[in-house]
Design brief:
Lipocalin; 8-stranded antiparallel barrel; 9 strands; 37% strand; binds 2-acetamido-2-deoxy-beta-D-glucopyranose; lipid-binding; ApolipopD; secreted
Length: 182
C-alpha cells in the first residue's frame, strides 16, 4: 500500500533528474570535498562510470564546466557518438559556505537537482553524488565518477568507488566502464 502510494508520487512528482535509483530512508548524511575550489574544478571531465539513468543514455559522455560572467557555471554534456548530441545546463553554488554543494538544472522547466562533489583532487578524479528526499521515507540518488583522462588508473577508480560506498552506492550497481566505451 505504502509502496504503491510512493510509486504514484514518484510518477507524479518527477525528481530533478528522472529514473534515478529509489532507496529506503532519507538521503544519507555525507561530507563533501573540504575547501572546494571551483576554479580548479572547471574544464573537461570524462564520465567513467555512473548509476544508470534514463536522461543520459549516450555512451562515452564528456562534460565541460565553464564559469559564466554572471557567476553561474555552464555545464556542457557531450556524447561522443556519430550524431554527438549535447545538452547545456546551469550549475550554481547555492551556499558560499558550502561550495562543493552545487545545484544543477538542464532546462528552465526542470527543477534544480543537487550536485555534490564528495571528493576531487582536481587533476585526476571527481566523485559526484546527487540525492533527493521523497517525503523523508525514501530517496532517489545518482552518482558519477568523472576523470580528467578517459582511462584513470585502477587505484584511482578503487578509491573513488569506496567513497561512493559510504553513501550506499555499491560498486556492482555502477555501469561497468566497458559498457560506456564506444
Ligand atoms: C588511494 O587512497 C589511498 C588511501 O587514502 C591513498 O594513499 C592513495 O594515494 C590513493 N590513490 C590514488 C591513485 O588516488
Amino acid at each position: 500500500m505504502w509502496w504503491s502510494l510512493l510509486f504514484l508520487l514518484f510518477l507524479l512528482v518527477p525528481p530533478p533528474v528522472s529514473a534515478q535509483t529509489l532507496r529506503c530512508g532519507p538521503c544519507p548524511v555525507t561530507g563533501v570535498q573540504q575547501g572546494f575550489d571551483l576554479q580548479r574544478y572547471l574544464g573537461r571531465w570524462f564520465e567513467i562510470t555512473k548509476l544508470p539513468a534514463s536522461f543520459e543514455s549516450g555512451k562515452c559522455i564528456e562534460a565541460n564546466y565553464a564559469l559564466r560572467k554572471d557567476g553561474t557555471i555552464e555545464v556542457l554534456n557531450k556524447q561522443m557518438e556519430e550524431r554527438g548530441r549535447s545538452i547545456i545546463g546551469t550549475a550554481v553554488v547555492t551556499d558560499p559556505k558550502e561550495p562543493a554543494k552545487l545545484g544543477v538544472s538542464f532546462s528552465f522547466l526542470s527543477p534544480v537537482g543537487t550536485y555534490w562533489v564528495l571528493y576531487t583532487d582536481y587533476t585526476s578524479v571527481a566523485v559526484v553524488y546527487s540525492c533527493t528526499d521523497i517525503l523523508r521515507v525514501s530517496h532517489v540518488d545518482y552518482a558519477w565518477i568523472l576523470a580528467r583522462s578517459r582511462f584513470p588508473s585502477e587505484e584511482t577508480m578503487r578509491n573513488a568507488t569506496q567513497i561512493l560506498e559510504k553513501v550506499g552506492v555499491k560498486e556492482c550497481e555502477l555501469i561497468p566502464q566497458s559498457k560506456l566505451d564506444v
